[in-house]
Design a protein that fits this description.
Carbonic Anhydrase II; 29% strand; EC 4.2.1.1; three-stranded mixed β-sheet; 13-stranded mixed β-sheet; zinc; alpha+beta; signal; carbonate dehydratase activity
């Protein structure tokens, strides 16, 4: 798999927009499917998850969404994996303060200090920019969705993106995410007005201990669907409570892009970090 694809050069250009494409804040993006007020708060309704601007129409926003050959999310078939020890994420996250916002597409939490939280993959350092939520999961494993998927979006000094994806199913309460669910704004946040999450949060606690990692090259999962993104999906799901799940689904009943074709790509299962 080519880890230095030329598409990474495109990622370095206009990084705020590209991060917005992975369901972070984008002042030109569309409304939440659950809130008509979102359109005025976030600008023109250019894409969404329902109706005439749903994922079937994202090619109208960015041609890459329709014509790309390394798109995300994907279905991961566990009977068709490669197995090498390359690409194991080295986690260097630590407890820090976070702020949370409702950006019109999802709930997003960003660390107060980006330099203290990073991962290293094949010698490259990627700094945590934010994490956000999708329901149902965007990736499927053996054709099955989890109840929720969390994306930790990391960026290198040269603008390359590595995303850690964690699946969650309803079960036991998740104490690490409790502050996020308790503090998440019910309506779209005003620009530059995130809500502080009480205390600190260690992103490492969001990663399932002892889980193998499913690694492949893909894209942002929302417009502009830019390719060259390094994906690391944890195979073992975590747990959130039914109450935590329903609190998020009350705001975003379904904000997941359908799975995309593999188009000849392979998925590599690497040992637990």
């Amino acid at each position: 798999m080519n880890r230095h694809a030329t598409t990474l050069g495109a990622l370095a250009l206009g990084l705020p927009l590209l991060l917005a494409g992975c369901a972070t804040h984008d002042s030109s993006s569309s409304a939440s499917p659950s809130s008509s007020a979102s359109a005025s708060a976030t600008g023109a309704a250019s894409w969404s998850y329902t109706g005439s601007t749903d994922p079937e129409h994202w090619g109208d926003v960015s041609t890459t969404c329709a014509t790309g050959t390394a798109q995300s999310p994907i279905n991961i078939d566990r009977t068709d994996l490669t197995h090498t020890a390359t690409g194991v994420p080295e986690i260097h996250y630590q407890a820090t303060t976070f702020e949370v916002e409702n950006n019109g597409h999802t709930i997003e939490a960003a660390p107060a200090n980006h330099t203290d939280n990073y991962v290293v993959i094949d010698g490259t350092q990627y700094f945590l920019q934010q994490f956000h939520l999708h329901t149902t999961s965007e990736h499927t494993i053996d054709g099955k969705h989890a109840d929720l998927e969390l994306h930790l979006v990391n960026k290198s000094a040269d603008g390359a993106i590595a995303v850690l994806g964690v699946l969650f199913n309803a079960g036991a309460v998740n104490p690490t995410l409790a502050g996020v669910f308790d503090s998440m704004p019910k309506s779209v946040s005003a620009d530059d007005h995130p809500e502080p999450i009480p205390g600190t949060l260690n992103p490492a606690d969001l990663l399932p201990a002892g889980s193998e990692v499913l690694e492949y090259e893909g894209s942002l999962t929302t417009p502009p669907c830019t390719e060259g993104v390094r994906w690391n999906v944890y195979e073992t799901p975590g747990s959130i409570s039914a109450k935590q799940l329903s609190a998020f689904q009350a705001l975003y009943p379904k904000n997941a892009r359908p799975v995309q074709e593999l188009d000849g790509r392979s998925v590599n299962e690497v040992p637990a970090p």
